[in-house]
Structures are given as C-alpha cells and as structure tokens.
Amino acid sequence: MLVKLSNRTEAARVRAWLTRRGLASRILDGGALILVDDPFVPYGVKQALLYDPAVDSVEPTRAAPEATIRTSSEDAPWPFPGRMPDIVAGPCSIESAAVADEVAHFLSTLNIGWMRGGTHKVRTSPYDFQGAGLQAAEWLRESCDRYGLRAISEVVDSDDMEAIADLLDIVQVGARQMHNPHFLQRVASVGKPVLLKRGLSATPTEWLWAAEYLLVAGAPHVIFCERGIRTPSPLKRFTLDLGAIPFIREMTPFPIYVDPSHAAGSSPYVLPLALGAMAAGAHGLLVECHPDPGCARSDATQALDFPALADMVRRVRSLNLQEVAIK
Ligand code: PEP
Ligand code: MN
C-alpha cells in the first residue's frame, strides 16, 4: 500500500503511527510517500489514514499487488437487499424433499429468511452418507421458494457444481476445501457470493488469502465463517476461535458469521457458543437443525431440534447487542 502525503513534514509521524499498529513501512521521495510492506493492512487502518489531514490518498502498489480484500473502499456488509440475517439454519444434509420442506416451513415461522443444507457432503469416512447431490439442491430450492427463503449450500469440485450453484443464492466453500486455490477460482467463476469457511487448522492469514483468491477470480462478495479449529482442547469437536471475529472485522470490510454447530459437535454446546459469538461481534450465525436429530443422516449429535432452535433464536434476538456493539 502506498500512502501519498500532502504534507512531507508529517511523514515521520504517520510512519510512527503505522509502526504502533505493527506495520512495517518506508518513507520514500523525501516524505512524499510511505510504502507499507505488509500485504494485509487492517481495513480500519486504511480508513483512519484517509481521515489524517496529512494524507492525500491511499493506493495499491504496482510492485506488490494489493490485496483486493482490503482495497475495497466501501463497507460491504451484505450483498442482498434488506438486513443481514441474524441466523441461517437448516439440516447438515438435505436428505429428502420432506425434510427440506419441514425445515423451511419451520424457519419461516421463526422469521428466519435463509436456509442452509448440504448437497454433496464432504465426509471423513467414505462409508458415511455422501449427500443427495443435485437432487438435494433442487429440493432445497423448491422448499426455499415455497416459503420465501434464500438458499446457501456447500459446493464441491463435482461435475454438477455449476448446476448446483445455479440453484443457490450463496455458495459455501467448506472448511476442507479452503486450501485449494484452483477450486476457489472455479467457485468464484459462478459469480455468486461465497460463504468461506475457515479451514480446520488455517491461520488467519491463510484464510484471508483464500478470500483473496475468490475476489481476484471474480467472486462478487465474500462472507467469512468461523467454524472452529483444531486445538489440544478435549472439547467435543473443534474449538471456536472467538478472536477470529474481531480479526476479520478489523482486517476486512466483509461480514463474519459463526457456525457454532460444527465447532460444538454436540447440541447442548451450540447455544452457549452462539451467544458468545454474537456478543463478540459476529454478524450472524450458521446453525444446523433437524426435525428429528436422532434420525439425521449426518452430524446428528450437533443438530438442534425445533424447540431448541426456537429457544436459540429467541435468546439470540433478546441479546442487547447495542450494549456490546463492536464497531
Ligand atoms: C457444513 O456446513 O455443512 C460443513 C460441512 O461444514 P465445515 O465445512 O465447516 O465442516
Ligand atoms: Mn454438518
């Protein structure tokens, strides 16, 4: 990033300000320019620089391409008309037309406008249910249309990826796919907003670079989704990294959602993680539910039944988020 100064005598002060924020930089042209070396300058830093009376402009450098993710000049909170959904919910997998319909109907009664649900499932064991594929995407679309919802589902590197993406409003990149640049480019080429899960052990910087791959390949919008990472913690499945929430808010203008279900791995743990995530500044939640969790064909232990989902929605919506608002 190149900071152009209107007042050369202020260059040392502006550079010291950048140093205090952990950013290495160099003064060039006798104080007319400051070159910031780090490819990821926090989004807020760029905004603050533009308010500095000694700063003329902040521009990408040609030598080291600027990360699109942080050169976006506007807040990019949500790519659809209307407010951002507080909760996106649905089964791990769209197992049948009946399950899709039952869930969509229940979500509409809770005033949840977005439904999730897997089509091709990325499973650890090849013997586990692999998802109903394109047929599942059709069931999801039909149910969403019937109840006025929008649809999110993970896409994988399958022959029918484009056909599935056509049926969705947002395409999801799963945690196990985040590290595959060629796949990210293929996903971006479908032209839909992408919900990008964090890889199981991805560093925050690797996650940002994955988003960068999507954006430079033409994805119109990215929604980050923290879903828990591997740590030595003996808890049920993964460890929800709450710190990822302020990190993404600081580094990018894009929304950060949290999936408490895959982090928890166990339904009683979902609510506390969901409440913690919202209090820490998440823009919304991605939650798994099922009309009869005991019969779910994937991720049964973490699925909320309908009463538990309704309770979670009520409790999330009764949080006084203005009080804890994180800008
Ligand atoms: C999912 O959301 O259905 C899923 C498989 O999640 P993850 O990629 O985070 O494991
Ligand atoms: Mn799942």
Description:
The chain has 327 residues and is an alpha/beta fold. Helices cover 35% and strands 15% of the residues. It is built from twelve helices and twelve strands. The chain has helices at 11-20, 43-51, 68-71, 97-109, 134-147, 161-166, 181-188, 204-216, 244-251, 260-264, 267-279, 306-318, and strands at residues 2-5, 25-28, 33-36, 55-59, 87-90, 114-116, 150-154, 170-173, 194-197, 222-226, 256-258, 284-288. The strands form two sheets. It has an eight-stranded parallel barrel, surrounded by six helices. A hairpin with a 4-residue loop joins strand 2 and strand 3. Helix 4 (97-109) packs parallel to helix 5. The longest helix has 14 residues, at 134-147. Bound molecules: phosphoenolpyruvate and manganese (II) ion. Residues 92, 262, 288, 298-299 line the site of manganese (II) ion.
